[in-house]
Amino acid sequence: MRLFILTDSFFANSASLIYQKAWDLVEAGKPMDQVHFYIVGDAIPANFTNLFNSHSNYNEYTNVEIVSFQEAQKLMTTITNAVIVHFGAELKGSEKFPQYFIPLGHPNYNGDLSLLQNWVQQRKFELFIKKSIKTICLNEWVLETIKTTHPKYAFKASLGYLPTAALPIFEWHHLAACKDEITAGNNYFLAFIPLNEMIATLKEFSIFKKWQQTAMALVFVFENEATCAKAKSLLKGYKFRESIFVLPKSNLKKEWIAATYAALWSGVNFDSSFLMEEAVQYHIPLLLNTNSHLPDAWSKAGEYFDFSPKLALSNHFKLYYKDEVYRQARSNMGHAWLNQQNTNGELQFDWKLPMCLK
Q1: How far apart are CA 86 and CA 81, in angstroms?
Q2: Among 35, 177, 198, 221, which has the minimal tally of Cβ within 10 Å of its Cβ?
Q3: Mind giving me the DSSP string for 114-142?
Q4: Are 37 and 3 contacting, i.e. CB atoms less than 8 angstroms apart?
Q5: What distance in Å separates the CA atoms of residue 39 and residue 155, rounded to the nearest whole number?
Q6: pTM for this one?
């Protein structure tokens, strides 16, 4: 079997996340006999290129090859046994082969789209579901969203278990260099929140900074450069501006997550679930706002509380800053939760990736 994994997407997905899921598929496919993986992409980063190129074969039949989209299109005319896996992309000439769609994001979550752009992306998303042999949802959060937003094709969606390959291990000096790059070397909290919650979060961070004279920074991650520009304009006149950093999600690196002190999520949707999992794998504690309406299982991934009351968030900043034992205990609880999630998925999900792809 020739398994083509498309590393592109029409939707607002993190490129790093797509490459990681492609790598997860390759690693999970080691036991498969006579399978050839084609990683399709035109600008795969060097670190992932090295991973795919240095893949140690499980047996003589398992191979990994990186090809451009143009090269993959040419192959479509010469082969007869291809399977296409994608995260919201198309490959010209592949329509005759089985298509499997793995959603990592949704048009509903991109607030910067115009009405026309949103309509086009909604239609495109639904078309991917319609054309798929199966739309594979990597957790219950994704599945429930698909059922709600596209009820007509809900029967196409199923839960799929994909074991996560080991994430890169970063030495302390690598993480120190990451802090130098982002916050001039200071420790930081990482915040994934909507723009309309930024001012309230800044006020809570001010209370924390006044309570403890510390160089601790706060790093906001927003969807795109346009939102980042709006966020930076809100910082005018802010007393602790030198401790606030604003970065686009498109530039997100695993090091940013691995190097943080704790990560905040508010108003999030299923596209954040995969980043949450990565944070937990790096033993980073999560602070989760109840306004996100997390599925029951996900509310146990970290501290699940209401950010809106005065002092609620600042008290948590203080707690995590001054009590390392507590911070480590919360990160260990998150890690135990993720291990249980993986066990449940392996036992309960009907589709096991990539073995189910035929």
Answers
A1: 17
A2: 177
A3: -HHHHHHHHHHHHHHHHH-SEEEESSHHH
A4: yes
A5: 29
A6: 0.92
Residue with tokens 């510390």: 214
The tens digit of pLDDT for each residue in 173-197 reads 999 999 999 999 999 999 999 999 9
3-state secondary structure of 281: helix
CB 217, CB 244: distance < 8 Å = yes
DSSP string over 140-186: HHHHHHHHHH-GGGGGGEEEEE-PPPPPPP--HHHHHHHHHHHHTT-
191 CB-contact burial (10 Å; exposed 0-12 / middle 13-18 / buried 19+): buried
User: Using CA atoms, how far apart are residues 82 and 2, in angstroms rounded to an integer?
Assistant: 5
226 CB-contact burial (10 Å; exposed 0-12 / middle 13-18 / buried 19+): exposed
Tokens encoding 276: 């949450």
35-46 pLDDT, tens digit per residue, is: 899 999 998 989
Torsion of CA 311, 312, 314, 320, to 10 degrees: 140
Residue 65 is encoded by which pair of tokens? 């090859």
